Amino acid sequence: MARSLYRASLALTPIVLVARYGLHAGGTLLFLLSCAALAPLAFLIGEATENVAEHTGPGIGGFLNASFGNAPEVIIALFAIGDGLPNVVRGSIAGSVVSTSLLVLGGAIAVGAHGKEIDRRSIRLQVSIVFVALLLFLIPAIGGWHGDPDRHNLYLATLPVAAVLLVLYLTVTVKNLRTHSAAKRAKASVEAWSLRSALLALAGATVGTALVSEVLVGSLNAFGHALGLSQFFVAVVIVALVGNAAEQGGAVVIARRGNTRLGAEIAVSSATQVAVFVAPVVALVSGLVGRGLPLSFRPVEIAAMTGAALAVAFVSLDARVRRWEGLLLIAGYAIAVTAFGLSGDR
Predict the structure, then answer these.
(1) How far is the C-alpha of 31 from the C-alpha of 12, rounded, in Å?
(2) What is the CA radius of gyration of the chain?
(3) What is the phi/psi pair of residue 95, to 5°?
(4) Residue 191 phi/psi, 5° resolution?
(5) pLDDT tens across 156-167, in order?
(6) What is d(CA 132, CA 117) in angstroms, rounded to the nearest whole number?
(7) Whole-angstrom Cα distance, residue 243 to residue 34?
(8) Quick one: how far is CA 30 from the chain centroid?
């Protein structure tokens, strides 16, 4: 039943395109349809990369999963830059780090088995990487707290920060690839897609994500205006949740099935990848698709990301998670959303 609903939901992609280019539907409807269409596309990207991994082995498969799993976020960000919406890009990046660290991890812990162990060493390493990213974000961010946050000198200050973060990401990724390269490649299971089918599905889902993302970004302002929401709030809460649909759904479902350890790992890994992969890639590529994007996050964004990282560090102290800790993380996300709503646009 769930599989049938998932396949049927993929039809939302052509529906979005027909509504936009054929029927010229209103912005609010287009935004809602786009959000609904991106979720199954994100799951299809994840499923396709998992099937590619059946043929390529865990090392390459893991790299593809990490890279293409963030495709919706990167694509949405690049379209927003092209449309001159830098606050949307920074908001969606900050919101992704906060939502995966608090809401998704909290949900995975809350629905998972009580008292289960998590990989404390791995989570602490990833939280440490996020703290490094936050310290580097302060370089362009502090300058943006006074005056124009999108001025060119802040973008110049962002470039070395983005380069260092990307090198950090690539270093960790290469180390993981080398670790997995020694493992014997398992034969693809009978249920696995063929490599050709998996690659075609991955390519098709990525193209579909790009088309739907363009509609989503173009309708964002109309949606916010219709509901009386600030552009920043829509980006930091709604767009961030949509862009991380695959990781969010996957982490909670896996934890619900009893593997709380893996669910927690997925949630924290997603937050880390956004900080050290999505943010620098978007910043470095931004000059090619529009005006260069400074990573000049607002004080509320820096505070929320720092608070989220501290909360994850607290939960991982004794390597065991309990449901009240998950509920505490979810409550922390609710506080962050309230702060985002009160802060408004710049």
Answers:
(1) 12
(2) 19
(3) -65, -35
(4) -75, -15
(5) 999 999 999 999
(6) 26
(7) 11
(8) 21
